Amino acid sequence: MRMRSTVSRAAATRLFWENGYEATSINDLTREMGIRPGSLYAAFGDKRTLFNEVIAAYGRSPAGEFIWAAMAREPTAFDAFHRILLDAAAMYTDPGTPAGNLLCSAAAADVDVAVYMCDLRNASVDTFEKRLATARHEGEIPAAADPRRLAAYFTAVMHGMSQRARDGATAAELTDTAELAMAAWPAR
């Protein structure tokens, strides 16, 4: 079922992003969303279903789609990965949102939620690997380059940047990290 308003969705998203899944209580959610617990349960059934909806909406937002936008927009894999890391530096430190990336910030001890979040994060590795395999096939990176290892590397850099943003790193610091990471790009 759809949330009643974008204000309610934004409130739930902010709570999960700032506090994570486990530390966000039903009381926190209903208070910030401006609804009673019964309304939340009637609309979603439980906190997990609400969380799933928040994650899905995040994936359709600019914060969730910037990777795929860069992949589609940039002419080369190098340009795409450079753009992704620079956009991450800016987005992860945007004062209008909680620091970091929701998919990294909302980690959970609940096994089902943890597996769900792990699968979503690992989807980035798969997406990166496909783009890098194409780059290797087209001669943009050397034939000896391993797309899976490179994908894992760039994913780790992004996750690290997310955590650094939560720890107070500035956009300038994360931009420096992005530039340093691009220095690891395999030479042709």
UniProtKB/TrEMBL annotation:
UniProtKB keywords: DNA-binding, Transcription, Transcription regulation
Regions that span the bilayer: none
DNA-binding region: 25-44
HTH tetR-type domain ranges (all copies): 2-62
Keyword match DNA-binding: yes
Domain of life: Bacteria
PANTHER family xref list: HTH-TYPE TRANSCRIPTIONAL REGULATOR YJDC (PTHR47506:SF1), TRANSCRIPTIONAL REGULATORY PROTEIN (PTHR47506)
Protein name: TetR family transcriptional regulator
Species: Winogradskya humida
